């Protein structure tokens, strides 16, 4: 009988260890059990302070905690929300913002003009290193808060900013302030819908221009929901209805923002009804989503625009006809339906369909799949024998680059390889050093719904995301004229003319427009998502 | 014995600094542009870049950065990650769940490996032995990147036996499926090593002696043979605990557990030196203690091994 | 397995290697696994003997199509021939697996033997070195090594091989050290030492044969683990690059679409399992043949 003891002891030891390991946890609280609240999946937001929050997860959470100055109607025109009236001077340089009265922050403080001015100054002040600081660039005085290092990477340090207040912001009375821009801009009203333009209460600051420690974890906003408890990093953020809210009142009593490290895990939770809304169903789950979710699987447009750029320092792509031939060799529809399973749509313009002024197929024939014409054009113009498409491997681009290369190989009968770089930054580096990295994959998400927000950053000579170095004076002039035009309609005319130059020159190959691909559980109804990939919290409701 | 332990503890301090420096150097070698890594593909304005570079001393060389890190560490301040989170708070919130998960996986794996390993060694060449071989092959051929999602789909989503995901405060039950998946990464080697070592020892002289003495076969195997076969097994456990802790990456991602594996991966991807070194420091301490315990166990298992 | 009694009856004087070969010759397991290993190596070096299809001939229109005349295993997500890709992938997978395991084995053997045999200061330095390497997170090591070891346009095979070799030797080293520590205290070692055997002779003739069994097992498994680890590296996005084909890449890619089509996942896994099986059996047979306790 002694011989049995080690067995038993091992079994008992194993059982005890397992129990000990499992002890002290036992959290059986089911987040979906609470009556009229919903659970929405996000990633861990990088930051929640509005001026520092530029990722889509923080935008979702802030949307529940804050009430924006303006938002967009069905025609994508900006309409006042927390603002009563926003008006511009004749030359569109001086903007007057008047707030609606009676609004309060979640701690009871009234919302005043000063709250906006303080928040914006904080965001623009260089030493605060706010991720959304560049949004304030257009405001007069921004440069004084952001003196640049005179010798770049050299030994000299950048000078300290002389002031932490932008000269362009002026308080008129408690509910009115004016914004002076450094240059006229007819569509400034569209810009201030973004989350970096939210106000901050006095309680946010421990002293002038210094955010109180821990404020970000217990954010106080002016929106329909307030924080319940604090931000539980990597786990969840719970918000509940703010009873004194004066704006449009949502139908639900609260939201649990559940944080996921990986969206496949969120999908597993959605299918097993532990999550109410998943805002971005990953491509890898799309094949099963219609079967798993049925009518609770939806799509709506968003601002994502994906394309391939031609670095201008590569001589083999100097000829616009070569660029057009490569574009015609790609079957965009097939990739959108087979690789992305319909979660993207084929792009045939240089801006996203979500902005006013967008024209279907402004790219013309060059964006239509035509392998024979492509091959003839490519041969006539002496395209290179080998095409390389470089992508950053951390973005999940492998499948479509491989498929694109397969198509190019079949259409043009040249070699085509997808070249991987570990990170986007490495790609940028190689571009800056003018190394032969071939074609480069790029993408863009807009900050505000204007054609200008695609044209300027992507194709402008000084555009922040013009990594391939294309430059056209005629184009730059048209974009600038559009921004300074007298009305939004006049702006669009100029911008469309600028887009026509792109169609002639083909500096990039437009590939796809993104879509919100989302799903929801049986517990909720009326789920909508906007162009900025945010859930409409005012419409969503629970069903029994 | 006492002097041996003291000596080992002193070595630990040196090893600790060595390991943090090596990891810091590796992170530095991998540093392209942490600011861009954090921003994703959005362009970073010059103003923001300059401000962040200064705040995190990114323009300093390797030694400069390590110096800043160490001087802070010695005053008990683990610092702040590049995304602005307090590293000691991050460690505090990530370690418990990972320790729990890897400990469960280890107990499961060790239990199975010992039982099945001994049994298949006794019945060498039999059906059970071959069945176990087939099972280990299956585990080896299915890397965890396949096993974890498949297990989640079958047992979590289709059959609903387990919750599909866990969380930081997950119950024992919710962590069971991830723990089983994690256990598969180490069980194959443990099992094969146990089997081999038991087979070896079954042939040893003392077994013949014990048999001749007329001891019950069970006692011979489970007391004499097993004790003598445990050395390679224990060694593997010492290595495996660490493998499990840092290797929990895929499991943690799939089952949404915000533990050390997933945070480390995030830190590495965003080139966040201070954060990675913070996690690794704790990891190294775990290794050092584990391997000391393992070495002491050698002496306990085999009286012929002595430390002086 | 050979029967120990026959070896004892057979009393012609022979060296250890001669004995081993005599045993191996009669082992069915040895021959089966050898044939299997030979086939796998043949496939690795001459893939065109096994398939005539072009593994890079892919078309989305054939996505996830079932088996047809030319393509016995059907088509994958990109519309490539699964059989052709599996056969052509053998080369890279075997190279990564074999070379990285040999590298890891060599480092592990040296570190483990030296640490276990010499003990004292040598052991302290080597063992703490192992601890430091163990402390390096796999992902970090992989990112740094494969990132820095491979240049542009490279398929990454060398980088992945070196990465795996440099990161996986620790368990082999610790296992080796532990068996050497156990073996060197055995009576026969003490006897040999007293008879005046040199350290080298002690190490290689007396301790090594008695201490190598767990090491060989760990090696055989490490080979399989390393071939599969290449899939994990691909999942972590630091694996093979460009147009490289391998079982690991196939597995990592097909895993995402496993619910839609299982075949592209199953076939490379089967080949991987068969390879591991062959090497485990070969390892077992060789270990048995060299085991002095069987004499």
Automatic annotation (TrEMBL), chain A:
GO terms for biological process: peptide transport. Pfam families: SBP_bac_5. Residues 1-21 form the signal peptide. Residues 78-465 form the Solute-binding protein family domain. This is Oligopeptide transport system substrate-binding protein. Keywords: Signal. The keyword Signal applies. Transmembrane segments: none annotated. It comes from the Bacteria. One of its GO terms (cellular component) is periplasmic space. It comes from Actinoplanes xinjiangensis. GO terms for molecular function: peptide transmembrane transporter activity.
UniProtKB/TrEMBL annotation, chain B:
One of its GO terms (biological process) is transmembrane transport. The chain crosses the membrane at residues 12-29, 101-122, 134-155, 170-188, 229-250, 276-301. It is a multi-pass membrane protein. GO terms for cellular component: plasma membrane. It is found in: Cell membrane. SUPFAM superfamilies: MetI-like (SSF161098). Its main location: membrane. The keyword Transmembrane applies. Residues 95-298 form the ABC transmembrane type-1 domain. PROSITE patterns: ABC_TM1 (PS50928). Keywords: Cell membrane, Membrane, Transmembrane, Transmembrane helix, Transport. Belongs to the binding-protein-dependent transport system permease family. This is Oligopeptide transport system permease protein. It comes from Actinoplanes xinjiangensis.
TrEMBL record, chain C:
The keyword Transmembrane applies. Coiled coil: none annotated. The chain crosses the membrane at residues 29-50, 94-118, 130-150, 156-176, 211-229, 265-286. InterPro entries: BP-dependent_transpt_permease, MetI-like, MetI-like_sf, OppC_N. Residues 90-283 form the ABC transmembrane type-1 domain. CDD domains: TM_PBP2. GO terms for biological process: transmembrane transport. GO terms for cellular component: plasma membrane. It is a multi-pass membrane protein. This is Oligopeptide transport system permease protein. It comes from Actinoplanes xinjiangensis. The lineage of its organism: Bacteria, Bacillati, Actinomycetota, Actinomycetes, Micromonosporales.
